[in-house]
User: Fold this.
Amino acid sequence: MNNLISIKSATLSEDIAQQLSNAIVQGHIPQGSKISEPELAKQYGVSRGPLREAIVKLEGLGLVTRTANVGARVIQLNIQDMLDTFTMREALEGMAARLAAHNMPADEVLKLYALLDKHQAHLDNNKDDHYLQQGGNDDFHQRIIHASQNVKLIRLLTEELYAVIRMYRRHTADQRSDPRQALREHRAILDAIANHEGDLAELLMRRHISRASQLLKLAMEHTALASH
Assistant:
């Protein structure tokens, strides 16, 4: 965190919040670490005001916690929070897949197949290192959520829960013994959506997320045992 980062958008605090969010999700700012306002203000070349607004936004996203007379810290992932988060995610994304099977336009279905081909190429070119999706438009899950066309569902999954879910998903990707399994599951979900099979799409999505939850639980338990 030594290089000065240029912030050009008119919405300064939102830009800072987005960059800090990405840094936390990607692990560049470690879990549990204290947020140093002077250091970040210097790094971003901004005053403390917009930075504090950004930290408030991160708190709203569930990425940091603030304590009086202590300040802000990045959250520390834990098993119970993960299980609670993924239980919600399983239900909500299952619903999104069901709705997408009825609402996703044919051209978007084709674009999603192309996206999965892109993910396949990544695995081929990186010797099956792991299957880690990008955010935004390259995120298979987010594209399905938007295709649900349910505004409240979209807000919950792409704003309120999205950043924390990405943190957990990053950890899950590194734990899969078969990195192509998630890709196969994504293709099966998309096949069901393409065939307008809402029940099947929901079932496959819920199963996909439940499996990810169990993988992550085992990995987090193993890490906890190894640290003692």
